[in-house]
Specification:
CATH class of one domain: Alpha Beta
Radius of gyration: 21 Å
CATH topology of one domain: NADH Oxidase
CATH superfamily of one domain: NADH Oxidase
Strand order of the largest sheet: 1-2-6-5
Structural class: alpha+beta
Length: 236
């Protein structure tokens, strides 16, 4: 087997940024097919849930979901995200009140146009967001628009929204894989989350995830995904 090593031109850079062998095992086609089918079936069963059981969820599971999400690729490996996990009841109440105030404007004062509200109607969504209090955890994902160097100067982050979007998807996947459920919630505007959660100016709220067990017997819309030939183009 040939071993490849990244050809750093600068020995000092090579010493400070070492490479390690990629940890992977090449599987037989049949094994890959089985794993692919199993994972697809798991994820095809995923649904966003708005009715949660208030049963507690161990903090360690939320920690693992965040660690999993943080394995997402990011521009120049800047990892431009912060996950803020909230279980304190009083703080969840304040978040619900602020979110409902924004959503009330969206739904009842026509910040969202008729076409938008018509598209949401089959999902049963309105300005009431009681799940923000009932779910045992709220996890707010912030995008870090820029960072800070050791000397206090600004560090540029690259492809921030793309990176944070991938981390968000991996968080949803991790939550579903462990048997919990979540809902990507984006009250608009979301700036109130930065002040309520006392986040710095370089962070901007991206999405909020209530996390917990679904309420027993809860029903969800009978959604069907677009078929493969409607979402993919193959140029063989």
């Amino acid at each position: 087997m040939t071993t490849y090593q990244y050809p750093y031109p600068d020995p000092e850079l090579a010493a400070s940024h070492p490479f390690v062998e990629h940890r992977t095992v090449r599987l037989a086609d049949t094994d890959m097919r089985a794993r692919a089918d199993d994972f697809y079936a798991l994820m095809d069963a995923r649904r966003s849930v708005r009715m949660f059981d208030d049963a507690p969820v161990p903090r360690s599971l939320i920690e693992t979901a965040i660690r999993t999400a943080s394995t997402a690729p990011s521009g120049a490996h800047m990892q431009p995200w912060t996950f803020v996990a909230i279980s304190a009841p009083a703080l969840k109440t304040r978040i619900r009140e602020a979110a409902e105030e924004e959503e009330r404007t969206n739904y009842l004062e026509n910040r969202m146009n008729d076409e938008w509200q018509e598209a949401l109607a089959p999902l049963g969504s309105d300005h009431h967001k009681e799940f923000l209090e009932i779910a045992p955890w709220l996890v707010v994902l912030f995008e870090r628009r820029f960072g800070e160097k050791d000397d206090g100067s600004k560090r540029t982050h690259y492809y921030v929204k793309e990176s944070v979007g991938m981390a968000a998807g991996m968080f949803v996947t991790a939550i579903h894989q462990m048997g919990l459920t979540t809902l990507p919630h984006t009250p608009s505007p979301m700036v109130f989350l930065r002040s309520l959660l006392e986040r710095p100016d370089n962070e901007r709220p991206f999405v909020m995830f209530p996390v917990g067990h679904p309420l027993p017997g809860v029903q969800v819309p009978d959604l069907h995904r677009r078929p493969l030939d409607d979402v993919a183009v193959f140029l063989d």
